Amino acid sequence: MSIGQNIKSIRKKRNLTQKEFAKILEISNSYMSELESDKRNLSIDTINKIAKKLNVPTMQLLTQDAETNKAIEIAQKILESSTTMTEEERDAMLALINQVSI
After folding, report:
1. How far apart are CA 24 and CA 98, in angstroms?
2. Residue 9: which region, alpha, beta or left (left: phi > 0; alpha: psi -120 to 50)?
3. Domain 1-64 has CATH 3.40.50.720
4. Is the Cβ–Cβ distance between 76 and 51 less than 8 Å?
5. Tens digit of each residue's pLDDT, the chain (102 residues)
6. What is the 3-state secondary structure (H, E, C) of the chain?
7. What pLDDT score was predicted for residue 4?
8. Cα–Cα dist 39/32, whole Å
9. pLDDT at 101
10. Among 3, 23, 26, 75, which residue's beta carbon has the most beta carbons within 10 A?
11. How far apart are CA 84 and CA 87, in angstroms?
């Protein structure tokens, strides 16, 4: 998937319309449409800003492989949930991850 397709996909997962997300980014609706249609070249600063507003790693917008994006999304969820886990729970999660990755 392209950067624009990734932005659109993640935006939709967040239940945001193009208009709503354009407002969050403080850009016009037409510019938002051009971003998602890959009609604009994005600077790394713009990509970082969009990733931050979508609450995803910048790499998730840059990656063209859907499977890799899914892995990044899962890893992010694991990291977010690990902050509230006990040490024992983190050890159990790490053991499970190690079993799956073998």
Report:
1. 39
2. alpha
3. no
4. no
5. 788 999 999 999 999 999 999 999 999 999 999 999 999 888 888 899 999 999 888 888 887 677 776 777 777 777 777 788 888 888 887 787 777 654
6. CCHHHHHHHHHHHCCCCHHHHHHHHCCCHHHHHHHHCCCCCCCHHHHHHHHHHHCCCHHHHHCCCHHHHHHHHHHHHHHHHHCCCCHHHHHHHHHHHHHHHC
7. 93
8. 10
9. 58
10. 3
11. 10
Tokens of 25: 């980014």
Q: Where are the domains of the chain?
A: 1-64, 65-102
pTM (two decimals) = 0.65
